[in-house]
Design goal:
six-stranded mixed beta sheet, six-stranded mixed β-barrel, globular, binds iron/sulfur cluster
């Protein structure tokens, strides 16, 4: 089918047909989907059986995508706020009235200083078209503040790029041939399901699976071994493994000499980390550290599936750098089933400058706002160092009132009556409740997009299966129309979604016609990308000592015993907030069938910690620290290790028992690398609710 026909077909309201699509969510699997449309309505959303990593299966969440799209609470006309911020009282207005007023308000602010306007977006869709294309052009042309998009993965991403030269790693398919797989900082069954299928295949062929995670997750249950280390101590564990590799001379000296730089300094550092010291820091036994080092050194090929959970702590960047060095030390990269995968997104030839047009800044250099400190930044006054007070926020593909850290401050910021807030959304989320205008956006079934992946190496297309519901519009169209009202007349603001999709990839690497015909294009990459070095660094070597980063080290938590002993005495429980299995960040919380499976916001607490506080299974508890408190239901379980509680997220605040969620207790201090939030580096106390 040629491109015009594909679009025409998608507009066809009669008969039954199947449309090629891609999952838009922030998940490494980026599934290829087949959407069945009958009489103009989506009746089925399935995994594409022909796509090599999707294998015909979607996770439970996205197999309900039609339910989400046709949800009776979809916002389908623009809404204007009529009640106090946060009250959720809105009236419907026409698109013209909404866009005219928004443009008028933004123009007035921009006349004073366009940096007072801040875009706020993340990975509500991972699509290159409906993400940062027309939106970025709009804000660049406006001269608005830039946004540092740090909220999830920037510590690990920058750390990996510092070490390997890019966000690059193994082909996920080759894990099936690995003999040892370390699943490090990942609950694959919940958040990397298709990798888990491949790991299962490896297990059937005799591979050993080791899970390294503070939580005894569903994945940990099914691995041969689980190392339940304390949150934020992964870097110390990596140093301990290096210690053992050195002491037993299990090193691949040839690989180290030819394909790394900076090893001698790290070698000296690692020698300071005998297993006993590592065990004390990590909350493991010295024998567990020794045995893991032995397995890792002597099992070939050995692969590490690192994921982003472990980098949401102060030392997350350094920990990723240390772990990324391990496959070089044992020469694991020599085999296609050895090495490491944190992200594959750096392999994709995305033409970001063409999509986002930073040239529209025309020499201006706006300040940058870190999305992870939006709570503090919304409450700041103007100053020479900060610049103008934030006067307007335009939020798309994100729900910061629910997901940004330290929500007491985020909510205070969003409540400012002098803040003009526009939210592009599908639903009245916690953030939409604080908007001046809510603009109805299309879902993945209603618009065109193209996708990379951070868990595999296939570019994908998402054809629109149906036309927009109600008066919903694609993000691109909303920014196009705003641009017209702002008087931005550069030709790039007239680019159609198809034109944007065609600009997304370098033509020679991803052929658009093939993308449309097949649904995906596999990138042409070597099977064992670093078997002979060739890292995408200037020297082609893995940078153990990287310019601007130095030699990696263990960096203790902000709120851990090494850095904050008094705080630990007052708040003895470490807390992490991994995702509830049926939610994806804050998406899907309002899909009733999924919320019913989750039940209520849960706090997993170890039986010893529960008994010491008189907390019984299923009782309502108060989780608190100096920043705030929230209520949830205690699940007394060994999924939590002693001294650590797991606050499963991320619930919408208004769907929780007291209108709050786990971010009531998180903080805005940042990681060592990548300026990211430390959601898993938090201390709390927990008490039983009276009565
Ligand atoms: S959320 Fe992940 S596993 Fe689920 S359909 Fe999307 S890409 Fe696939």
């Amino acid at each position: 089918m040629d491109s015009a026909n594909a679009i025409e077909s998608a507009k066809d309201q009669a008969g039954s047909r199947i449309v090629r699509a891609a999952c838009p969510h922030d998940c490494p699997d980026t599934c290829a989907m087949r959407v069945t449309v009958e009489a103009g309505r989506v009746v089925k959303v399935q995994g594409d059986p022909e796509h090599p990593t999707t294998h015909g299966a979607l996770c439970q969440k996205v197999s309900r995508y039609a339910e989400r799209t046709y949800h009776p609470e979809r916002v389908l006309r623009p809404r204007k706020r009529i009640g106090p911020k946060g009250s959720g009282r809105f009236v419907e207005v026409s698109w013209d009235d909404a866009l005219d007023d928004i443009a008028r308000r933004l123009r007035a602010i921009a006349a004073r200083d366009p940096q007072a306007i801040v875009p706020y977006s993340y990975a509500g869709t991972m699509g290159l078209v409906q993400g940062e294309s027309m939106a970025a052009r709009f804000f660049h042309r406006l001269g608005a503040s830039l946004l540092d998009r740090t909220i999830c993965a920037s510590a690990g991403a920058e750390a990996l790029a510092a070490t390997y030269g890019g966000k690059v790693g193994m082909h996920v398919e080759h894990f099936a041939e690995s003999r040892l797989i370390l699943i490090w900082g990942s609950n694959s069954i919940a958040s990397n399901l298709h990798f888990w299928s491949i790991a299962q295949e490896a297990k059937r062929r005799g591979a050993k699976l080791v899970c390294i995670d503070p939580r005894r997750s569903e994945t940990a249950d099914k691995c041969h071994q689980h190392l339940q280390l304390l949150p934020g101590t992964d870097g110390a564990l990596a140093l301990g493994l290096m210690h053992e590799l050195i002491r037993h001379d299990w090193l691949d000296h040839d690989y180290i000499a030819r394909h790394t730089e900076g090893w001698p300094a790290l070698r000296e550092r690692a020698l300071q980390w005998p297993p006993e010291r590592v065990a004390a820091v990590c909350g493991l036994t010295a024998d567990e550290v020794r045995a893991l080092a032995r397995d890792y050194a002597l099992t070939r090929p050995a692969a590490i599936r690192l994921n982003y959970g472990m980098q949401r702590v102060r030392g997350g960047g350094n920990a990723v750098r240390l772990i990324a060095v391990l496959p070089c030390l044992v020469g694991a990269w020599r085999h296609r089933a050895g090495g490491l995968l944190l992200s594959s997104s750096g392999w994709f030839p995305v033409q970001r400058a063409a999509l986002q047009r930073p040239d529209l800044l025309a020499g201006r250099r706006p300040r940058t706002i870190n999305m992870s400190t939006i709570g503090d930044d919304l409450l700041r006054g103007p100053s020479p160092s900060f610049g103008p007070r934030i006067e307007a926020l335009v939020v798309y593909n994100s729900n910061p009132v629910a997901v940004a850290p330290e929500s007491p401050k985020v909510v205070r910021g969003f409540s400012r009556e002098d803040l003009f807030t526009v939210v592009l959304e599908h639903f009245m989320t916690d953030t939409a409740d604080y908007a001046d205008y809510v603009l109805p956006a299309t879902t993945q079934l209603e618009h065109l997009d193209v996708h990379t992946s951070y868990g595999h190496t296939y570019a994908l297309i998402n054809e629109p299966a149906i036309g927009p519901l109600g008066e919903a519009r694609p993000n691109t169209e909303i920014f196009r129309q705003l641009a017209a009202r702002m008087g931005f007349d550069e030709p790039c603001f007239a680019d159609s979604d198809e034109a944007l999709a065609r600009q997304a990839f370098a033509r020679e690497d991803v052929d658009f016609a093939q993308l449309r015909e097949v649904g995906w294009v596999k990138l042409a990459l070597p099977e064992a990308p670093f078997a002979e070095g060739g890292f995408p660094t200037p020297s082609g070597r893995c940078r153990i000592d990287a310019p601007g980063f130095g030699v990696p080290d263990y960096v203790p938590n902000h709120e851990g015993p090494e850095s904050a002993p008094e705080l630990v005495a007052r708040y003895p429980l470490a807390m992490i907030s991994p995702p509830a299995r049926n939610f994806l960040n804050s998406t899907f919380v309002n899909v009733k069938s999924l919320r019913d499976i989750e039940g209520q916001p849960l706090l997993e607490i170890h039986p010893h910690d529960a008994a010491a506080r008189g907390i019984g299974e299923g009782e309502m508890v108060r989780v608190y620290n100096d920043r705030g408190e929230y209520r949830c239901v205690a699940r007394v379980t060994e999924r939590a290790r002693p001294g650590v509680v797991n606050g499963l997220g991320i619930w919408w605040r208004k769907l929780g028992p007291d209108g709050t969620n786990v971010n009531e207790v998180t903080h805005q201090r940042l990681t060592d690398i990548g300026r990211a939030p430390c959601f898993y580096d938090v201390r709390v106390e927990v008490s039983r609710m009276a009565g």
